[in-house]
Automatic annotation (TrEMBL), chains A, B:
The lineage of its organism: Bacteria, Bacillati, Actinomycetota, Actinomycetes, Kitasatosporales. SMART domains: FCD, HTH_GNTR. It comes from Streptomyces fuscichromogenes. InterPro entries: GntR_C, TF_FadR/GntR_C, Tscrpt_reg_HTH_GntR, WH-like_DNA-bd_sf, WH_DNA-bd_sf. Transmembrane segments: none annotated. Residues 9-77 form the HTH gntR-type domain. This is GntR family transcriptional regulator. GO terms for molecular function: DNA binding; DNA-binding transcription factor activity. Gene3D superfamilies: GntR ligand-binding domain-like (1.20.120.530), Winged helix-like DNA-binding domain superfamily/Winged helix DNA-binding domain (1.10.10.10). It comes from the Bacteria. Keywords: DNA-binding, Transcription, Transcription regulation. The keyword Nucleotidyltransferase does not apply.
Length: 233, 233
DNA sequence: CAGCTGTAGTGGTCGGACCACATCGCTGAT
DNA sequence: ATCAGCGATGTGGTCCGACCACTACAGCTG
């Protein structure tokens, strides 16, 4: 009788599934250290090369973390770890897909902002105001963009849903915003952006979720509409 | 003078960035075939092993597709390709993070259902009804789950935003639903689920976005609340 | 012309070697 | 006895070369 299980897919793919399964079944806890690459390969009856490819793939997915000279560890499996790859989607999307992505962001960002209006603490609100002021105090597009991102990041964080915040972080990834930003700024959109941010801030101060939701939706919607018009060219 | 660029991170990591950049810059179009592993490795001045790890990682991310004996190709970079990995998040999330994930799903699902109410075609509506009927005609949990998933999939597809549909697909991934489903069914929740699905269907037929949004939000919210109560144990 | 076949080229797997780095125990001076 | 310094060990990172499995296509065969 042959005990060799039916080979489905590539060896590396099987290794990925096996490791994922071990984590899903709780046999590997977050933060725990895995056996060495050499041992793992031996356990699953494959070469170290194939096992390394599996580990590399899971590392990129944010499931594992390899520390040179120390070992391989399971990440904390928190939202930030696993959703980091979400940025790749934003980076590689083009044309109509960017609009769809922005539409998703509008939905999530407006919800997050509404939640934040109800839950934001005084400290967090102070941080929001810090970035708002910094944004209005300079004309350097790079700096404005940085504070713009931080502005929304603090708000998303105040919404109390780390998963949602992590997704929004990915949707607002550096290159994504930078690409849209380039042409956007040359239409005097800065002034409008500042007004919109001010409106969001007002709603947060007033602790008015509905106003916050509307302001955030309008804010993202502006960019969305602009991008949509660009595609029609 | 040394021409060797400053080595940042691992060789494999650099290869991943380089290939991603090539795609982002449009030097590699969707569907296009890449040079062979051996050539790519030579071009970037690294070993085939390291290049293979990079390719494997991008394959898992849904950016590349390797066809044994044929070559390596860029995927269509559509929502479905890139967001397939989103299922991993759902598979490996536990406890409070599952609730957060469900909260995100509630937001997106309700929006998608509202959009569907305005845009769904007769054919799509017929498909929805097919799964609704099949779902009510059996008591086999497995089959019910399958039609449940299909029910929501058709609706998400009718919303007209493939990106949103792909994310929802990941959030409703098989194992994710199966895990929640297990205990959920033993509380007579089937009857309630059927009522909720009927409500969603009614809203779609009436082409009433607001009713659809409310019905979908309530539907997901029910599961969300149940899961939240389970964690309190 | 259709079908088969052989062959070159591709990704998939393997094993081994060596390098770079982290860790920890040992050494030896204080 | 304490602790700074150092060296051995083990780990992931990289490279190489070989071979296997599969695809694609040119060329042959009927």
């Amino acid at each position: 009788m042959d005990e060799t299980v039916p080979q489905k897919g590539t060896v590396t793919q099987r290794a990925i599934e096996r490791i994922k399964a071990m984590i899903a079944e709780g046999r590997l806890e977050p933060g725990q250290r895995l056996p060495t690459e050499r041992d793992l390969a031996a356990q699953l009856g494959m070469s170290r090369s194939s096992m390394r490819e599996a580990i590399r793939a899971l590392t990129v997915l944010g499931v594992l973390e390899a520390r040179h000279g120390s070992g391989i560890y399971v990440t904390q499996l928190e939202a930030g770890d696993l959703l980091e790859t979400f940025g790749v989607v934003a980076d590689l999307s083009r044309g109509p897909q960017l609009v769809e992505l922005l539409e998703v962001r509008r939905v999530l960002e407006s919800t997050a902002t509404a939640l934040a209006a109800a839950r934001i603490t005084a400290d967090q609100l102070a941080e929001v105001e810090k970035h708002l002021a910094a944004m209005n105090a300079t004309d350097d597009p790079e700096e404005i963009l940085a504070h713009d991102l931080a502005f929304h990041r603090v708000i998303a964080g105040a919404a109390g849903n780390d998963t949602m915040a992590a997704i929004l972080e990915g949707l607002s990834s550096r290159t994504f915003r930078a690409r849209v930003w380039r042409g956007y700024e040359e239409e005097g959109a800065f002034a409008r952006t500042r007004r919109e941010h001010a409106a969001i801030h007002r709603a947060l101060v007033a602790r008015d979720p509905e106003a916050a939701r509307a302001a955030a939706a309008a804010h993202v919607g502006e960019v969305e509409e602009w991008l949509r018009s660009q595609l029609g060219t």
